[in-house]
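Researcher: Batch entry, complex prediction.
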Amino acid sequence: MANAKDIRRRIRTVKNIEKLTNAMKMVAAARLRKAQERALVARPYAEKMAEVMANLAGSVGEIDHPLLEVREEKNIAYVVIGAERGLAGSFNSNVMNKALREIGTRDPATVKLVLVGKKAVGFFRKKPYEIAADMEVGSKMNFVDIKKVTTKVRMMFENGDVDAVYLIYAKFISAMRQVPTAARLLPMAKPETQEFVKSEFVFEPDAAALLGTLLPKYVDTGVYQALVESQASEQGARMSAMSAATKNAGEMISNLTLVYNKARQAAITKEITEIVGGAEAQK
Amino acid sequence: MAKTFTLEVITPDRKVLSDSEITSVVLPGVEGYLGALAHHEPLMTSLAIGELDYHRTDGQVNAMAVTGGFVEIFDNKITVLADTAELREEIDLPRAEDSVRRAEERLASRPDDFDLERAQISLKRALNRLSVARKQF
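Model: Structure tokens for the complex:
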């Protein structure tokens, strides 16, 4: 049995870890709330956008736009949204594995990657795929910041470098549940048309031109939405991971304390036996 | 009492304004500024970089700096989907001045990765914010 001093030292170490994971849990909880708020306020914009698109599409009739063009999927770009930091349980590896599964057995030469977050870059750097673009994420990201990436993605699609773009990110279900998801970003699904408002609107400039400026924005909104959700997911995952770590540390401390007490008891018993034995021998 | 309508200004980051006591609004369309009163005919247009002014029924007037986006006028409601929108009182004047200076420097020095169009747009945005912030009613 280990001696009492060693055990005491281990207990102290584990207690420090417990403090640390507990603090991280608190921080993640606070950030999760913020990220959730952001995801929530981003929603009205996206919804209104979809509504306006529907109105427009209804008035234009047959829509023709490069971003809607369906081609045979030879070259594919994957936008993988990871986190900037680790210690979030299986958050990063879940997303990365989802991406690998999506890519599957595809010829690496036909795959281009757009990576968001340091962890995604770190994971794919040693893989045989071309990294077309990467960016870092911050908790204060706004809509303008992501334009660099979305513009690049749209250009790759419009130039014909790739025939489809998929978005891979962790969809936020709840603080405890995040689902790695793959969604097609481009070519866009044709917006659903709303018939009843047809031709009631005045368009400035004409409806087709408007749709042309709106479609790219719609793509950007999609990426932004995914990013905000992914951030909420990350904080949720980190919170549950840290909560589990804190619990484990607590368990470990009580186990170690038990062992320590046993060791101490054994030492005392041994001493008494020795004294009694010594006294006996004196007689 | 003047007829009123609802004005909503939404950006991807937040809801900037939602007010149903508006009597008139002037906004920067891509084809020029346009004014709207209550019961305007249904209209859709793109938004340029510029200033959006609105008058409330209680006589209050305010302005905001908007950059790019989209406007829908429908059913006595004006919805502005802007890339960014800042109310006049939210604009940090020293910061706005700073960003004008930075944008001008960039245009003057032309670093290697220079993108003329982007630099011009960012200067325009900065100047717009400044002029809205300094506006007096």
